[in-house]
Write a sequence for this structure.
């Protein structure tokens, strides 16, 4: 297990290095000078230009600039937004809570609704199972932007139960504001997780070792808990993990639709403003969150399936 | 003394899609306490389904008629807690131990599960009993084995774990469904010896299912032969081997390549084995029987008593003694009983 963790951590570091290089490099080669956002495309006097370039290290070679950026990033400093004259880490810090809250709440909804419905469908018969199938088909057909519009219109505007826009203040109010966006973000994923869970539980139920447990006279609830669900947890965890990781990228759409002041929405906005440092910073944070989530999934997978750790999985 | 297990007129139909498939037709036999009976037949003859009907493990949608009595209880009518108690007293050892043991739980957990969950035995005590049971089936260093996962053990070792586990619940009947088929010859012999010892020491009744007539004869006093969902012959194992009454039994006797035979025998029964639902009317074995006449194909055959056993062939008395000799597969001339 220790060796597995060490290997996984080394992979994480390598992935982040490659990703940071790609992020920095992509924006470096993208057209337009970072200064143009500041000057509004007006030509600058040469000495002013030189002064600005020196201030933002724009005249140094690419690798040197990348190295500076990376080292400061490791110290928590993601540089300065040229148009806003503000520290990128501070800008990110103000918004990371909203995105984290949104992703977390969405994950909770996905796990409870997706896994719950999937188990219900797999173990239930006839009406229950068909109901679950119908619900998952409908929600699978609902991309998050469409779900956002529907939820805003029905729940917020028509029924007035929850706020349609904005972030809110304080824990309870923030939660109220996050609920609709989280539901919109969860819709498709709940369907996916429901289906995978249903299939996994069905498959495990038919396994020979489950029959052994039944043949030993164990009560069905124990058999389900100790053998069916325990084993189905392996594929379910994988899918839930990958789904949650993908939410990190999808959150931008929902944040924009619900006017949430989160990282995703801000990334879109910063890209439009050619605020290079902010785009780089947010991208780095999102990639880190994505990679970390995947690593957690891998560890959970290894913990759940003893055949893998001992066999030495070359992931 | 009445038998521990009594099966009478057992018919099983399985559902496959919209279709109902008969896989067992009117099976009947008895097993006394401490007795071992072999159940032999080719693939699809319904051996496993017979065992599953007894342990009430038939697939969903199965239709069962007839009667199964175990220790006085009407097995087919059991439900809920009583059904679970019945299952606990009838242990099943399956062919493929690797598939039948949960791969993500430790041996310890697998072995002690029903003790802890059903009998409320404390964990330490359950573990002690599990270790003792492992020793009984000849596994060294049981403490270490208990800590391991199934994938760390060999197939033969896992099958012993399976048997040891079956013993922990102190069953009265053991259903062994081809429990040695997946093992190599040496391990097979060891497992057979273990089963035989256990039966003698504990007075365990056993239904021993196999393809192999000689293997059944090695552990069982009595052997029943099944073909296409029907019993075709029940005899003492030795009598069945030396003097089979049904042409199918005779074909099985000759089908086994014997280690002691001087000349190599032909070992295939011509034609394909069928299941009950695809069997023809009249005698189900007729299409593959070298002795079949027109009457066999048009008349259902009944089980009749003969030579202390039962046989389902109207010509059995006439054919007796000639079956082994007359078969084209035979090269050993007259059989011992002639
Ligand atoms: N779940 C099932 N649904 C429908 N039919 C089945 C099912 N399982 C088995 N059968 C059929 O039932 C018949 C009897 O099967 P059974 O497993 O009892 O045979 P068997 O004598 O044990 O054969 P083998 O030696 O191959 O194990 C076969 O025709 C088989 O195809
Ligand atoms: Mg079978």
């Amino acid at each position: 297990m220790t060796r597995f963790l060490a290997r996984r951590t080394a992979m994480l570091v390598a992935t982040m290095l490659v990703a940071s290089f790609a992020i920095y490099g992509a924006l470096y080669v993208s057209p337009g000078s970072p200064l143009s956002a500041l000057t509004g495309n007006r030509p600058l006097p040469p000495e002013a230009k030189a002064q600005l370039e020196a201030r933002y290290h724009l005249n140094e070679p690419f690798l040197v600039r990348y190295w500076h950026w990376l080292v400061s990033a490791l110290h928590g400093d993601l540089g300065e937004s040229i148009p806003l004259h503000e520290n990128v880490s501070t800008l990110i810090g103000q918004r990371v809570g909203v995105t984290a809250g949104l992703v977390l709440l969405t994950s909770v909804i996905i796990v409870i609704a997706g896994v719950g419905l999937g188990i219900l469908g797999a173990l239930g018969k006839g009406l229950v199972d068909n109901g679950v199938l119908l619900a998952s088909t409908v929600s699978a057909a609902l991309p998050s932007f469409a779900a956002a519009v529907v939820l805003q219109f029905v729940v917020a505007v028509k029924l007035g139960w929850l706020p349609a826009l904005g972030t809110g203040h304080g824990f309870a109010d923030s939660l109220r504001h996050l609920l609709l966006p989280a539901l919109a973000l969860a819709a498709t994923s709940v369907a996916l997780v429901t289906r995978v869970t249903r299939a996994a539980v069905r498959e495990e139920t038919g396994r020979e070792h489950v029959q052994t447990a039944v043949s030993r006279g164990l009560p069905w609830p124990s058999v389900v808990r100790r053998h069916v669900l325990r084993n189905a947890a392996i594929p379910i965890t994988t899918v839930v993990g990958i789904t949650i990781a993908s939410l990190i990228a999808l959150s931008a759409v929902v944040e924009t639709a619900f006017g949430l002041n989160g990282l995703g929405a801000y990334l879109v906005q910063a890209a439009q403003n050619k605020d290079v440092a902010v785009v780089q910073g947010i991208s780095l944070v999102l990639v880190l969150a994505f990679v970390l989530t995947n690593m957690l999934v891998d560890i959970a997978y290894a913990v759940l399936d003893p055949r893998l750790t001992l066999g030495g999985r070359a992931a | 003394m009445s038998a521990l297990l009594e099966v009478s007129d057992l018919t099983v139909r399985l559902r496959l899609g919209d279709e109902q498939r008969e896989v067992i037709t009117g099976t009947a036999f008895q097993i006394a306490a401490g007795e071992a009976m072999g159940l032999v037949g080719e693939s699809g003859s319904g051996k496993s389904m017979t065992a599953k009907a007894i342990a009430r493990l038939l697939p969903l949608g199965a239709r069962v008629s007839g009667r199964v009595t175990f220790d006085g209880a009407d097995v087919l009518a059991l439900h809920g807690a009583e059904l679970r108690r019945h299952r606990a007293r009838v242990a099943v050892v399956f062919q493929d131990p690797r598939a039948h043991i949960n791969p993500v739980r430790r041996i310890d957990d697998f072995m002690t599960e029903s003790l802890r969950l059903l009998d409320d035995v404390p964990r330490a005590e359950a573990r002690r009993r599990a270790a003792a049971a492992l020793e009984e089936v000849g596994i060294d260093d049981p403490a270490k084995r208990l800590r391991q996962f199934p994938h760390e053990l060999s197939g033969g070792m896992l099958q012993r774990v399976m048997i040891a586990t079956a013993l922990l619940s102190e069953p009265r009947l053991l259903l062994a469904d081809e429990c040695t088929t997946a093992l190599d010859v040496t391990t097979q012999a060891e497992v057979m010896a273990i089963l035989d010892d256990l039966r003698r020491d504990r007075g365990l009744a056993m239904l021993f299912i196999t393809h192999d007539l000689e293997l059944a004869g090695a552990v069982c006093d009595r052997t029943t032969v099944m073909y296409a969902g029907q019993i075709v012959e029940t005899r003492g194992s030795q009598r069945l081997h030396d003097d089979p009454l049904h042409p199918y039994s005779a074909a099985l006797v000759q089908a086994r390549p014997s280690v002691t035979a001087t000349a190599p025998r032909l070992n295939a029964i011509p034609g394909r084995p069928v299941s009950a639902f695809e069997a023809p009317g009249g005698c189900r074995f007729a299409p593959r029987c070298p002795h079949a006449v027109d009457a066999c194909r048009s008349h259902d055959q009944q089980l009749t008593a003969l030579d202390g056993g039962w046989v389902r062939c109207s010509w059995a008395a006439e054919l007796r003694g000639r079956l082994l000799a007359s078969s084209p597969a035979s090269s050993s001339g007259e059989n011992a009983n002639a």
About this structure: The interface with chain A takes residues 55, 57, 83-92, 94, 96, 99-105, 113-114, 117-118, 149, 151-152, 169 of chain B (CB under 8 Å). The first helix of chain B runs from residue 47 to 55. The first strand of chain B starts at residue 5 and ends at 16.
